Amino acid sequence: MKVIYLGHSGFFVETEKACYLFDYIRGGVPAAGRGKPLYVFASHSHADHFDSRIFNAPFSENVSAYILSYDIGKKFRRGRAGWMSRYEDRIIFARPGEEIPLADAKVLPLKSTDIGVAYVVEEENVRIYHAGDLNWWYWEEEPKSWNRNMEVSYKREIGRLREKEMDAAFVPLDPRLGEAYWYGMEYFLENVPAKAVFPMHFWEDYSIIPRYVNEHGHEDQIMKIEREGQEFLLGQPI
């Protein structure tokens, strides 16, 4: 499996059977390898996770399907965005708990603790998790009841993954949370078996990754992202 970091929460993943693009907002987009199908995902409508440039040619000509969170459809349907009508036959709106069959895999959306969904993509021998904004958000300025509800909601959704080993997982590690930056990542690693975990949503503060490893360990699982465009090869060459 090949993984390319594209910035913020954007990743390109190529497996033996297909290519997957998650939450693209910037960066060079690799062409789908050797004629493999390309599936494009957006976890929710926030501008740091969704950009309508994913529908621009010539890139869009290679896309087999767009899997977009249901809130994107609600936000843009009001104005009938041109891309929505133009690619209607290739757009699938994802809702939590509703499994989506693809030609080469199935997609299991989870409910985000912000808006939209997280994605689990399962091929025959590969499982990928992209959190979107599903995270243990803990803000000091929020009431205790809000933060407690966030904790409960996050743990409930992550609990659905306990029996699923992830070959690659993309998980928020957000420095804006201050001393609580590690809550979501640590809970994920303690409860979900994962071979390779890619921090994301760290707002170009790459120092948060070695800080987390120094403070909490997991150095064999955490991928050391250092720049946009960085490539990682996992397992056997594709």
Radius of gyration: 17 Å
Largest sheet: 7 strands, mixed
In the CATH scheme, what's the topology name? Metallo-beta-lactamase, Chain A
CATH architecture label:
4-Layer Sandwich
Tally of individual helices: 5
The count of DSSP E runs of length 2 or more, i.e. the number of strands, is 13
Percent range of helical residues: 10-25%
| CATH class descriptor | Alpha Beta
Describe this structure in words.
- It is a single chain.
- The longest helix is centred in the middle third of the chain and has 16 residues, at 144-159.
- Helix 3 links the parallel strand 10 (127-130) and strand 11.
- By secondary structure, the protein is an alpha/beta fold.
- 20% of the residues lie in helices and 26% in strands.
- The protein is built from 5 helices and 13 strands.
- It has one domain (2-233): Ribonuclease Z/Hydroxyacylglutathione hydrolase-like (Metallo-beta-lactamase, Chain A), CATH 3.60.15.10.
- Helix 3 (144-159) packs parallel to helix 4.
- It is globular.
Keywords:
238 residues, alpha/beta, Metallo-beta-lactamase, Chain A, 6-stranded mixed beta sheet, 5 helices, 13 strands, 26% strand, globular
Topology, please?
Layout: E1 2-7, E2 10-14, E3 19-22, E4 38-42, E5 63-69, H1 70-77, H2 82-86, E6 91-94, E7 100-101, E8 106-111, E9 117-122, E10 127-130, H3 144-159, E11 168-172, H4 183-191, E12 197-200, H5 208-216, E13 231-233
Parallel strand pairs: 3-4, 4-5, 5-6, 10-11, 11-12
Antiparallel strand pairs: 1-2, 1-13, 2-3, 7-8, 8-9, 9-10
Helix pairs in contact: 3-4
